[in-house]
Design a protein that fits this description.
With 71 residues, this protein is mostly helical. Helices cover 70% and strands 0% of the residues. The protein is flat.
């Protein structure tokens, strides 16, 4: 198991990595044009269209899963 000092060092490095990722994301968003944003939004298409089924809520299946997990 890593020592407390090693854990602190790792946490500091991890925080620095995430800060760098956030900076890059902010730069990418700042450089994003409306046209490119529109292209990205329109490319987000569902593979299967949403089918509304009023006779199914998923509650029974969810309860069955919870029941199995308690065993």
């Amino acid at each position: 198991m890593p020592s407390s000092e090693e854990q602190k060092k790792f946490a500091t490095q991890e925080a620095a990595r995430w800060a760098a990722v956030e900076r890059v994301k902010a730069q990418e968003l700042a450089a994003l044009t409306e046209e490119r944003a529109r292209e990205i939004i329109f490319s987000l298409v569902a593979i299967d269209p949403w089918r509304d089924n009023p006779n199914w809520s998923g509650l029974v299946e969810q309860q069955a899963l919870f029941h199995k997990s308690r065993k």
